[in-house]
Amino acid sequence: MTDTQKALSILKKYINNIHKCTTEDDNVSSYIDNQKPFSFDIDFKNSISSIKNIIKDFDIGYRFSLQKGFYKDINYATATEHMTKIENITNVKYSNIFGSYLNDNNSKDFNILFNIIPHPFVDTFTLTYIRTNIFQGVTGSCTNLHSHAPTFNYLVYGLKLWILIKRTQKNTELINKYTEYGNIGSFLDNSNELLNKLDEIYIFYQYKNTCVHIPGGWYHGIINIEDSFCIASSYQPTNPPPLH
Question: Count of CB atoms within 10 A of residue 103's CB?
Fold first, then answer.
């Protein structure tokens, strides 16, 4: 068993799925208003191949290069270039992944991408969308713990393991103490210690054709258990949570 497999086996003991909503769920409005995590099933009308064909000519904000991390089979993504075309999208090499940042400035790319993804709650809630992103990560790629505006993360295909932690003063101090700037490797190294001390932490799998709502300001990181492709839409919350 590799070091990563040992660490993941520890995380699996703490699996606690976030609330799963339906479009008829009365709790959805409170989950968004109070910035709580939840998930829901989605149905992409476009096939995977047609989605990839639509976005193949997009200019992307960043290309990420995979750097070796603490574990041999987990690699960290770091930005290396700005504004490049998506290449070899249907045959991604294991040396690179890609991500995009398409701002809501009425750009053609943003509107095309935004219209691809299902928005079951748009008719119910008036949300101001900031940008829509696309990310493709190979098996074993990951992100470090980070936070940003609230986001709907739609998984077109693949399998992701999420670590989602509410941003509180206590949690921030623990993350700073036991990790190197949120490094996912040092989190895994100290998972036994951290998982018994952190408040309101969720560890769960995201499967294809599901969407995860990430509350604004919450720390989160993912490990791609399988090659994964997702589309993420960030929005401006009506009542932004305080940051500690």
Answer: 13
Measure the CA–CA gap between 182 and 187, rounded to whole angstroms: 7
> Strands (DSSP E) along the chain, which ranges?
19-20, 38-41, 59-68, 75-85, 96-99, 102-103, 128-137, 141-142, 151-157, 159-165, 201-207, 210-214, 219-224, 228-236
Q: Domain residues for 230?
A: 3-236
Task: Judge residue 195's burial from the number of C-beta atoms within 10 Å of its C-beta, 0-12 exposed, 13-18 middle, 19 or more buried.
Answer: middle
Rounded to two decimals, the pTM is 0.81
What is d(CA 91, CA 140) in angstroms, rounded to the nearest whole number?
Answer: 16
- Over the stretch 87-129, which tens digit does the pLDDT of each residue have? 444 433 333 444 454 544 446 666 777 777 776 665 555 677 7
Cα Rg for the chain, rounded, in angstroms?
17
Give me the CATH number covering residue 100.
Answer: 2.60.120.650
Residue 243 lies in a domain: no
